[in-house]
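User: Last request for today: this protein with 4-O-methyl-beta-D-glucopyranuronic acid, please.
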Amino acid sequence: MPTPIAKERPVSEDGYRLWLRYEPVAHPPTRAAYRAALTQAVVEAPSPTLLAAREEIGLALAGLLGTPVPMVEQVTQAGALVAGTPQSSRAIAKLDLRAGLEPAGAEGFVITRARIADKNGIAIAANTDTGVLYGVFHFLRRLQTYKPLDDLHIVSAPKIKRRMLNHWDNLDRTVERGYAGFSLWDWHKLPDYISPRYKDYARANASVGINGTVLTNVNAGALILTNQYLVKVAALADVFRPYGIRVYLTARFTAPIEAGGLETADPLDPGVVAWWEAKADEIYALIPDFGGFVVKANSEGQPGPHDYGRSHADGANLLAGALAPKGGVVCWRAFVYDEKNLDDRAKQAYTELAPQDGAFRDNVFLQIKNGPIDFQPREPHHPLLGAMPKTPLMLEVQITQEYLGHATHLVYLAPLFKETLDADTYCCGPGSPVARVVDGSLDGHAMSGMVGVANTGSERNWCGHPFAAANWFAFGRLAWDHRATSEGIAEEWLRMTFGNDERFVGPAAALMLDSREAAVNYMTPLGLHHIMARDHHYGPGPWVAGGRADWTSLYYHRADAAGVGFDRTPSGSDAAGQYFSPYREQVSDLAACPEEVLLWFHHVSWRHTMKSGRTLWDELCFKYNHGVASVRQMQQAWDALAGFVDAARFEHVKALLKIQAKEAAWWRDACLLYFQTFSGLPIPPEYEPPAASLEYYMNLAHYYVPGIRERRFG
Ligand code: GCW
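Assistant: Here's the final one, the structure of the complex with 4-O-methyl-beta-D-glucopyranuronic acid:
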């Protein structure tokens, strides 16, 4: 729908309202159509959830239409918006919506034009109150994005049942890998002080269908499981419940020792079993809809069942047994690897866990990162995805940009999430994408889940970078429907976050869509991975060596005079062998391997001829330079949009893009100079020469980078 030229620059905003701004519709014909179609709103018999829906309708319509819309008890005129279930609403009960309500299921909804009390109106109907709330948010999104209302026949249901955020938040309010300030959870003042942010957090999540939140870091302490803290958790759960959001906690495997005074946490010890059962009773007495536990065990120093000679399944089943009678689940993380295991880190999770398929209790998910290493700018999909048909597999992606420029770089992650969701595992023959493993449809699982490691924090705009909220939004939209496109999601988010002017939306969406590949190119092109600085992971560090081998860059890039890359073919670690055919053969074959993961799977000669005709070395130079050029283009594209964005957010993004451009060049120069010491080849003259020496880059140190515990200077 065309929109008029904005007359003046919008008023500055701080980003707090995220994508739920409900600014007046700036297109007069659309506003007039909306006003005519929406003259009153009816939400009968409000439960807490329906009250939330009603409140949102009131807030949104008043903002969008520029005038409050009366909330009435029953339909009295044409143009009524009626929202409810057949149980809550007499008006909805009278409509024949069976054809839509059946596929809508427990959380889906129907939005349709309807004759209500003999008058034309719009119905938002669902089988549950939460479904109504989701329908309301969906409807409001249509208004926010200036969609026409004449032809409404929407039936929508989530493809994935548990759509969750994982907060890596510590109880001291630091956030592991958090780049937007401190934790949102004000533990010290809970349960008595309820920050208004909790409700706004819940609204934002519900608006994109997120229905679970794991409040605590997977690197867990036992304190959260004490009564003193569970009472605080219950207070948060009370705020989130009306918004359809269940609370989950991370469980430290040795909590029976630390919080229970037992001498062991052995999963087969009857005292330990009893302790977890009693703990579950205590939790559910406080939080009747508690979601369950997420567990990181025997990984990166966390305790786990191996410490007692037991398997991961033994550990997961212990907790699952305690939660099962209450309806809770265990999300057992597959992010397991051990420095003492000399096999390729990329293989270890599969080697350990694939044989345990079928050994887990029914209420256990295995929670698997998108790739086999760790949220790199690009990884092939995790080989466990598709390899454990008897176990519901939950996909974990990282919304917070640990390896993608933190909250400083603009990197839109929907293309990364989609790349994994769309990847063909071939587990049931061609056409077995990760999305269908995860949504349970390939293996007939009733349980399904997707989690995103959150990027929220105490900063006023929630996520730090004004564009980082797009990744939170995109996560929710894709967990609801993995068929949604990166383009569509970007456009929605831009319209809701900044405005509907087509001259803004198109170029801004293009900028977002280019940003992930730009980051891959200036950080880790052609399948390079894990070559960032140590610990804080900010900036390049291909030279990182010493200490734990699998935490060094050398381990991953294996550069030498002959070439660069990790040989994971059958002649190397054979990580490729963990995939299904024909993917495993494809990536094992140097000629057939997609170049975007070439150095992930192969150690390749510097003089190898790439598809472009360039040598590998020249291609590397090309890619790094292309990445830098892309960021400069993003800067130009943003500058051209000045008139459409308020000054505060415009300048914020502009300044961050400037840093990003500087740092893209830093990545390029540092990496090319470093790899050049092996290739011995010149950087082709058409490219900018590095700005400083390799020594200079190697000696750069950064202190107090956010997202990790402080490291002392000196
Ligand atoms: O991404 C890595 C991070 C750790 C994190 C770990 C994990 C919470 O560097 O900070 O720990 O993965 O996913 O468990």
